[in-house]
Every structure is written in C-alpha cells, then in structure tokens.
Amino acid sequence: MTDALPQTHLTNQKKPDPCSFVIFGATGDLTHRLVMPSLYNLEATGLLPDKFCVVGVARKGTSNDDLRDSLMKGLRQYATRPVDDKVARRLLECVTSIEADPADPTSFDAMRERLEKLETNRSTGGNRLFYLATPPTAFAPISRQLGRTGMLKEANGAWRRLVVEKPFGTDLASAKALNDELLQIVTEHQIYRIDHYLGKETVQNILVLRFANGMFEPIWNRNHIDHVQITVDEKLGVGHRGSFYDATGALRDMVPNHLFQLLSLVAMEPPIRFDAHSVRSEKADVLAAIQTQSETEALRNSVRGQYLGGRIGDTEIEDYTRTEDVGPDSTTETYAALKLTIDNWRWAGVPFYLRTGKALGIKRTEVAIKFKQAPFAMFNCTSVDALAENYMMIGVEPTEGIALQFNTKIPGPTITLSGVEMKFRYKDYFKAEPATGYETLIYDCMIGDNILFQRADSVEAGWKAVQPFLDAWKKAGAKGLEKYKAGSEGPTGAEELLKRDGRTWRKLS
Ligand code: BG6
Questions:
Q1: Which of 258, 297, 378, 447 shows a CA-CA span of 20 to 30 A to 474?
Q2: Boundaries of each Glucose-6-phosphate dehydrogenase C-terminal domain copy (predicted)?
C-alpha cells in the first residue's frame, strides 16, 4: 500500500538569515563525516542563506585550499547523495580557514579581527553560529575565549549561537559544571546542545504520532500499557575509538542522551503548544520524574556486559580488551540494560526497559510499546497466554516506520487465531533523499528554533537518573560484568532482567 493520503505541510521552509558558520574542529572527523555533508545537502536543496560563509577553525591552521581539498574529499566519501561538483564548489568557495587555539588567547583576538572582516566582505550582518565539533574537553576553553573576546555577544540585532556536541559532561557534576560555565558566557537561548537522534525522522515522528492523532493518546498510559522497551543495538565494535570509548562506556555514550531522547518523547505529557519552551519543559519534566534509584536498586535493575571476539557477518571482531587503546583489564561496559520507572500518574507501575550494546548480531533501533493482554480468552481455542502480544513498534533503524502487532483469525471454518503485523514504512509512502540527520538540526540552529535541542535542565535530569548506575558499577568493578560473544544477542543477564518480571524482550529479526 503506497498511496499517500493528502499531506498537510505544517512548516514552510524558508532560507535562514545571512550568517557565518564557524566550525571548531574543522580538520576533524565529525566535520568531514557529518557537518559538511549536511551543509552540502542544505545547499543542494536551497536552504543555506544567500549571504553565508563557513569558517573552519583548527588549532593548527591550514591554507584555505588545503582545507577545501580535504573537505571535498570528505564530501566524496561521506555525502548521502551523489556529489554535484557545481553545488560542492559553491559551498567550498565560502570556506575560510582560521587558526585558533584556546591555549593561546591572542589567537582568538586575531580570529575576531579576521571574522569581522570576512563578515563585512560577505555581508552576513554579524549573525554567527559557533559549532563545537571538538573533543568535549575543549568545549569550555573555546567558549571562554569566545566570551572573553566578545564574539558571542549579541548586539545590534545580530544573533550569536553556540552549538555543543555530545557528550555533554561525563556525569551529573561535570554536566552541571559545564552548564554553569556556559551560562556565564551566554544565555540559555543561545545554546544548542545537539543530540543527533533528534535529527532522525522517526524520532521526530513520535511527537506527531502521539499528538496529531486522536486514537493513540487515550490508551497511552498505565491503564493500557504493560511496559516499554527501548533498544539501540549495534553491530559495529568500538573500532578505532578505544581511547574515547574506554573512558566512556555504553551507558554514558548512549543512555542519558540518545535513549533518553526516545524515552522522553514516548513518555512526556502533551505540550500545550509546539514551541521550544513547551516541548522542552515537558521533556525535562518526564526525565525529572524518572525514579532515582539507590545503588543497591541500580545494581539489581541493571545488566552490563563486555564483548568477546566473534564473527558478525563477514567481519571478525576481537575481544573488546584487545582493542587499540584499551587495556587488557578494562571493565568498561560495551552493553548496558536498565529497568527504570517513571513516578507520575501516567506511568506509575509501568517499567521502561532500556538496552544498548556494541558488537551484537543485529543493528536495530526501536521502541516497542507492549499493551496489556485482553483480559479473558473468549475464543476457547486459544488461551490468554497463547495470544500474540499486542505491541506497537516504532522503528528508527534500519527500517523507519511504525508497526502494530495484534491477533487475527486464520481463514477457515474454525476460529483459530494468529498474530499478525500491520506496517507503515516511510519509504513506501514518502520519497525522501537520504540525509545525514544533521541537516534538520543545523538548519534549525540557523533559523533559531531550539525545539530539537536539549535544555540545561533535561541534560541534568538525564545524568541524575543514570548517576546511581555509574556509581554502583564503578564500585563493583569487574564483579557483575558479563562477557558476551560478538555477534550474539548480548549478555544473558539482560533476558533475566525481564524474566524475573514475567516479561521477555521482543525478538529482533
Ligand atoms: C554516537 C555514539 O553518539 O551514536 C556511538 O558515540 C554510536 O558510539 C552512535 O555508535 C549511534 O548512532 P546511530 O545514529 O548509528 O544509532
């Protein structure tokens, strides 16, 4: 079934104001892999400002030509659509390379002068977006220099915005400290804390599914929902990111950010308006309502694992502890599963089970909402226990879409039941160019719409909810860290976590 119903366009995409797009970490992986391909896609669809410049900042400067060549190579490697040379040239022509190192404050004074000249030449009106595509340790030092030199000060109608990548802090205390530091330099409305999950179509669609339809919200609560499962399973191992990952682990890397974005969209109360304040307040409230567990509870309600070598498809993966930059005694988890509860009227008594891991047999990101079973089996051929479970699945990757699982009658003279799935897949209905997911977010930063960005309070509420797990796991060390084989479904303890509640994870296929 591919006939789309009449479409309602709720947004009118307009070109952003003239501006400078200043990227710190211009020579790095993120700039090449995601930021530039997104700018390319925006340029290809006519959504970059007419008056625009890209300033690539690095600690060790390169010439404009070298930076442009390297960004062009990046585009060829990472663009999500065939690169049209004319479009690429138009974009790269706007790129200027500047050297600035927070360890040398004078380099920021020089940067300010160059930026101002460039802005006059390009008539960008002084609007600036500073994108920190750097390691997190550089967020505060760079922001301090931008603040000291006045580059972030909004004046004469010109806006100044600061885009901060994840990870935002490494625990509750460091996230608070970073928020405090940034908020001394800029105001909250100038900060865009990016989480690339919010650039994904299906993730944004959770809001539309829930609040633009009348039929789901009445059953979206503890009376009808048994529990919620949020899964982000990955096939890839840690690869060359050993040094970052070993200090981070699966919980910090994925849960307070990506999985909590999914959780908050599924669990939030309806906002009174579709604007940044209302939506972000509801998201922050639901995260703040996650019950804070004691360390003992956290240990009981969690599972952590670390992968051993194995084969995934054609790829042989070695033990995590043999990864480059990872020590042989590392107790860093590459898999985490948690049981959380939300203390409010809608969700009291409804567990949220979260799981995420690397080097697993299947790549799958989905939210599965398990509805309560029909209370009694009037079709006596099938007992209540044997009925197919009622699920709504929100698929984020690899299949984007929504599916419902329910019981139906098998054709024939007798009443025999079978579970079936009713599926909506994006690609069947909508023809969209493949995107990086960052386009929406970068475009939103340029038009000043921060609905899809994290506010200080939700970042802190997220860390507060995972802090007991971090503390308990740190104290436990190797004790309780389960090994699992690469290419498997993960540690067996994850099954146990649900089994003791009389539940099972939905089978991924
Ligand atoms: C990143 C994590 O934020 O998200 C990675 O640092 C992870 O470890 C990635 O692989 C997952 O993103 P996606 O979009 O592939 O689900």
A1: 258
A2: 207-506
**Average per-residue pLDDT for the chain:** 93
Residue spans of the chain under pLDDT 70: 1-12, 377, 379-385
CA distances from 489 to 248, 340, 358, 392 (A): 22, 21, 10, 22
Per residue in 219-273, pLDDT (tens digit) is 999 999 999 999 999 999 999 899 999 999 999 999 999 999 999 999 999 999 9
Whole-number Å distance, alpha carbon 118 to ligand 1 midpoint, is 35
Distance 254 CA to ligand 1 centre (A): 7
The alpha carbon of residue 25 and the mean position of all alpha carbons in its chain are separated, in whole angstroms, by 20
Which of 30, 233, 243, 254 is the pocket-test mutation for ligand 1 (most atoms within 8 Å of CB)? Answer: 254
The DSSP code sequence of 57-81 is EESS---HHHHHHHHHHHHHHH-SS
Task: Determine if ligand 1 sits within 6 Å of the CB of residue 253.
Answer: yes
The Cα-based distances of 311 to 318, 485, 491 in angstroms read: 9, 9, 16
Structure-token match 């409804």, residue found? 350
Q: What amino acid occupies position 129? A: L
Tell me the binding residues for substrate: 196, 200, 234, 253, 358, 363
Q: How many CB atoms lie within 10 A of CB 213?
A: 9
Ligand 1 close to Cβ of residue 365 (< 6 A) = yes
Identity of the amino acid at 426: Y
Atom of ligand 1 nearest to the CA of 238: 8
Backbone torsion region of residue 426, taken as left when φ is above 0, otherwise alpha when ψ lies between -120 and 50, otherwise beta: alpha
Q: Domains, the chain, ranges and CATH?
A: 19-165 (3.40.50.720), 198-499 (3.30.360.10)
Query: Using a 6 Å cutoff on CB, does residue 234 contact ligand 1?
Result: yes
pLDDT in tens, 87-121: 999 999 999 999 999 999 999 999 999 999 999 99
Give me ligand 1 centre to Cα 253, in Å: 8
Q: Is 258 noted as a catalytic residue in this protein?
A: yes
According to DSSP, the β-strands at 225-233 and 315-317 are: unpaired
Whole-angstrom distance, CA of residue 289 vs CA of residue 457: 12
Predicted confidence at residue 419, as pLDDT, reads: 87
pTM of the model: 0.93
Enumerate the H helices of 355-491 as residue ranges.
426-429, 438-447, 456-476
Gap from CA of 196 to ligand 1 centroid (Å): 9
Name which residue sits closest to atom 6 of ligand 1, judged by CA.
Answer: 253
pLDDT tens for 338-390 read 999 999 999 999 999 999 999 999 999 999 999 998 877 676 666 666 778 89
Q: Of ligand 1's atoms, which has the minimum distance to the CA of residue 200?
A: 14
Q: Can you read off the two tokens belonging to residue 145?
A: 């220099």
Which two tokens mark 483? 């090994």
CA distance 38 to 302: 37
Tell me which residue has its CA closest to atom 14 in ligand 1. 197
